[in-house]
Design brief:
Layout: E1 20-21, E2 26-32, E3 35-46, E4 51-58, E5 61-68, E6 75-87, E7 92-102, E8 108-117, E9 125-130, E10 134-139, E11 150-153, E12 162-168, E13 172-180, E14 185-194, E15 197-203, E16 216-224, E17 227-235
Parallel strand pairs: 5-7
Antiparallel strand pairs: 1-2, 2-3, 3-6, 4-5, 6-9, 6-10, 7-8, 9-15, 11-12, 12-15, 13-14, 13-16, 16-17
C-alpha cells in the first residue's frame, strides 16, 4: 500500500453515522458542514500510549494509520477514542480505512466507513483528537499530584508534525492557538468543552489556510476557561 504526505492535527464532533466493526473498537463517520469526521472509538492500546497518526488520501480513498510508538509503556492496557477531522475535500463519496499498530508491529486493518462531501471548502488539512485513557486493565503507574493545567510538546523539531499534550484539572472550554515568532496567529483550534484529564493534539504544521508554515520558532497558547499556558515549538521541515 502506497503512502504519501503526512497531514495531522485536532478537533470536534458531529452527526450522520455509518458504523463498522473490526480489529479494535468501532470505526464510523459523519459530516459537519463540508468536513469529514472519522471516529475510531474504544481502541485498545497501552495505558501510556505515545500515539503517532498519519492520514493519506489517494483519490476517493483515505487511509488513516494509528501507531503507539511505545516510548514509555506501562503495565496496563486501556481504551481510547480517536477523532480524525478532514477538511478541504472535493465533492464525492469517500471510503476511509483505519489501520492500527503497536510498536514495531505491522499495521492491521481496524475498520472502514464511508461519507459524502457535497461542497469543497478551503484547502486540504487534517486534525486528530485523542481522548483520555478509559476502562484500564492491569496496573497503571500512579499519576503525579495534580498540578493544575499543564502543557507540553512530545515532538522533536525534525518531525513533520507536532504532538502537543495537555492536562485539564477540570472540565473547561478549551482553545489552542499557534503563533509565529512575530506574534501573528497562524492556526486556531477551538476544541470546545473538554473533560478533565489528559488530552493530545496533533498539529500538521499548516496554517489556517492549509498551507505549510515556514521553518522557525512558533508559540502554542492553550486557554482553558480563564487559565492560560504557553510553550515554544521549533519547525524544521
Amino acid at each position: 500500500m502506497k503512502r504519501s504526505n503526512i497531514v495531522l492535527g485536532v478537533t470536534a464532533l458531529l452527526a450522520t453515522a455509518i458504523p463498522a466493526f473490526a480489529l479494535s473498537g468501532k470505526v464510523w463517520s459523519e459530516v459537519e458542514g463540508n468536513t469529514g469526521i472519522v471516529h475510531h472509538d474504544d481502541v485498545y492500546f497501552n495505558c501510556c500510549a505515545d500515539m503517532a497518526f498519519e492520514i493519506v488520501q489517494e483519490g476517493k480513498v483515505i487511509d488513516i494509520y494509528e501507531r503507539d510508538l511505545g516510548t514509555h509503556p506501562c503495565y496496563c492496557m486501556c481504551y481510547y477514542d480517536f477523532i480524525h477531522k478532514i477538511d478541504g475535500l472535493a465533492p464525492g463519496t469517500y471510503t476511509a480505512n483505519v489501520w492500527e499498530a503497536s510498536y514495531d508491529e505491522e499495521f492491521k486493518f481496524a475498520g472502514t466507513t464511508t461519507f459524502t462531501i457535497k461542497v469543497q471548502t478551503g484547502s486540504f488539512s487534517t486534525t486528530t483528537l485523542m481522548s483520555e485513557c478509559h476502562n484500564s486493565e492491569g496496573v497503571e503507574e500512579p499519576r503525579a499530584p495534580d498540578e493544575g493545567l499543564t502543557l507540553e510538546s512530545l515532538s522533536a523539531p525534525s518531525e513533520t508534525y507536532a504532538r502537543i499534550s495537555y492536562h485539564l484539572p477540570h472540565d473547561a472550554e478549551t482553545v489552542l492557538e499557534i503563533f509565529d515568532a512575530a506574534g501573528n496567529r497562524v492556526r486556531i483550534l477551538d476544541l470546545g468543552d473538554q473533560a478533565a484529564g489528559e488530552h493530545l493534539v496533533v498539529w500538521d504544521t499548516r496554517n489556517q489556510a492549509g498551507q505549510q508554515v515556514s521553518r522557525g520558532i512558533y508559540f502554542v497558547r492553550l486557554q482553558a476557561d480563564s487559565d492560560i499556558r504557553t510553550l515554544s515549538l521549533v519547525v524544521l521541515r
